[in-house]
Amino acid sequence: MAKLWAGVTDGATNSLADDFNSSIAFDSRMFKQDIEGSMAHASMLAKQGIITKEEAAMLTDGLAGILDDLTSGKLSFDMTAEDIHMFVESTLTERIGEVGKKLHTARSRNDQVALDLRLYLREEVTTVIGLVKEVMRALLSQAEDNRDAIMPGYTHLQRAQPIVFAHHLLAYCAMLKRDCERLTDAARRMNASPIGCCALAGTTYDTDRRYEASLLGFDSVMGNSLDGVSDRDFALEILSAFAILMMHLSRLSEEVILWASWEFKFISLSKDFTTGSSIMPQKKNPDMAELIRGKTGRVYGDLMALLTTLKGLPLAYNKDMQEDKEAIFDALDTVKLCLSVAAPMLSSMEANRDNMKRAAQKGFINATDLADYLVKKGLAFRTAYKISGTLVANCIETNRVLEEIPLEEYRAACDLIDDDIYEEIALETCVNKRISEGGTGKASVESQIAAMKEFLK
After folding, report:
1. N-terminal to C-terminal alpha carbon distance within the chain
2. Active-site pick, 277, 340, 347, 436
């Protein structure tokens, strides 16, 4: 394809250089945004009298035809084109003649690519938020089904205090809610139009940047033309939000992997989201969760790649910035794929309540409640702590839990203990006594579920 920038030079470059320089292999996915941006640009040029209304109509009709043909598959991308902008403009000129060459008046590929990327990411961020909410709905459904499923809560991966499974799942809902808010905030800040900044210094034409921005749904325009063409903060913000989102998915996946193991057996994963072993017939591997965990590093790498690319660039546009798209597109595709798998994987898992509760009992995570009981009876905390610890040690030696100690044995340890001890150290009591806002108590969990439902409306 002929190079539209041929002028000072004849546009003849080495074929290896052409391949190295080309971006159409990856920026062609922005064809819809490129064409929509060009339609708005033609309308603005006509409004300002820079081209005639008839010429704008020819341009718009020609662009609409290209969009239809690309969407239907009637037209294929020419991979010899330098980028999507060159491909669209060349195809337009082939179809409508000399008028097609007027489309690029008062703009540059520098502001055009910045426009396309903002338009593309604005749409895709909305899609990602929708997928995040699907994962939240899966977690919320499981939380509603497991409001009273008692399990051990952990610190240092050691059993610490009793909680309900719903409370644990709702913690991930809270993380994902923040991810939605981060992406929404990044999209809001991104919604300023760079078109009209041209190469770097603006244009001598009497353009109306705000009119063109309004046609494309932008809230404002970039206020400095140098910044308008060289800013990629919006891509970094979205990549950062993606990296944090993937970190949350990775933490959740790690817990799913642990919970599904024979050592925990807190959950069972559906056969639809596990694989077998080629030589070990008993295996049921949580490969989907492992891949989500593994792909997190890939998204981190995309963020670091773009940060590194941008860190030493002087103003304004530099060809290095072509590297932004492969990083953001790879991260976007990875995030969407992981979210698409996570939602049904979580929806279809089954909680093994008996195993969870037995693990909570075996962890003696009601020992603090036993000590508190003795303090209420009048003992000093350190004395109560020692008695509680001695009883736990005895249970470990005899393979029992605190709930199984006979009352006589309790009274032998401390004559202040009465038969109300069993109600006091019951795991259900321990959970429901946590009445503080945000805790694992029944009222708090119900409140968290209600808040998440409201957010997801």
Report:
1. 50
2. 277
